[in-house]
Design brief:
Layout lengths: L18 E3 L11 H21 L3 E4 L9 H18 L6 E5 L12 H15 L7 E6 H7 L6 H15 L4 E6 L1 E2 L10 E2 L7 H9 L2 H5 L4 E3 L12 H12 L2
Parallel strand pairs: 1-2, 2-3, 3-4, 4-5, 5-8
Antiparallel strand pairs: 6-7
Helix pairs in contact: 1-2, 2-3, 3-5, 5-6, 6-8
Length: 247
């Protein structure tokens, strides 16, 4: 949404703010050994590619436990990261666990699940892993999962809960998306800023959150793409709306 002192919006993205998203085929929580091992291999490729390109943050969905249980799924992810970090010692790219809308057996709907997962990863992979694991906060996913982002006050309450449970210092990336689905619908469908069930006031709370203002971090639009009938990119309009909300 903004650029730091001395940076120009017409140039390349500043170092330390570049973000990639891992393949959706990866499922580190899978109870199937073949798929689990393939997922670790693919995740290693993603991490190595980010490290080579100087990409600071790699966002990915934690995974789905499918035919197993939540506890087993969390344990599988932690063990996968133990292996992954052993294969990539000293790498700087930070893996960011993204909160999810909560459909099916996907992990990450509840902030407590994300916090517990990070703790397990650090426990199994060692204290050095603490600097390599963070979170990505998606506004649409949080709203769909049941954290009401639909007003300034409720969004602020949700962010307070995120901070209390996960620590806002560990939130390294944000996805700013309005939601087509209602709060608690578990419907992962993104909408233009201010045109969904979150609305402008919810985003006002996010972009003016003191933690995110004091320590800026990448905020990414995953809203519908394309242009208006007049030829204006939707991304341009969504970005304007967000910037107008910033104090």
């Amino acid at each position: 949404l903004g650029w730091g002192a001395g940076e120009k919006s017409g140039g390349t993205q500043p170092a330390g703010r570049t973000v990639a998203h891992a393949s959706y085929l990866i499922n580190l929580a899978s109870p199937d050994d073949e798929l689990w091992n393939k997922s670790i291999d693919l995740m290693e490729e993603e991490v190595r590619r980010c490290e080579a390109l100087g990409v600071a943050f790699l966002v990915h969905h934690p995974g789905a436990y499918t035919t197993s249980t939540l506890d087993e799924g969390l344990a599988r992810i932690a063990l996968a990261y133990k292996d992954l970090f052993a294969r990539t010692p000293g790498f700087a790219t930070v893996s960011c666990l993204e909160n999810t809308a909560g459909g099916g057996s996907t992990i990450g709907r509840d902030f407590a699940e994300l916090a517990r997962l990070r703790e397990l990863i650090v426990k199994h992979a060692g204290k050095a892993a603490a600097t390599r694991i963070g979170f990505c906060f998606d506004t649409c996913h949080a709203h769909a999962a049941g954290y009401d982002m639909g007003s300034f006050d409720t969004a602020r309450t949700a962010l307070d809960e995120l901070g209390r449970v996960c620590g806002l210092e560990h939130v390294r990336v944000l996805h700013l998306n309005d939601s087509k689905g209602a709060c608690g619908s578990k419907l992962d469908r993104h909408e233009h800023i201010g045109e969904g069930t979150i609305g402008l006031e919810g985003f006002r709370a996010v972009v003016n959150c003191p933690a995110f203002v004091d320590t800026p971090r990448p905020m990414i639009l995953e809203t519908p793409k394309g242009t208006t009938d007049a030829g204006t990119p939707h991304d341009t309009l969504n970005l304007r709306r967000l910037r107008k909300l910033m104090a």
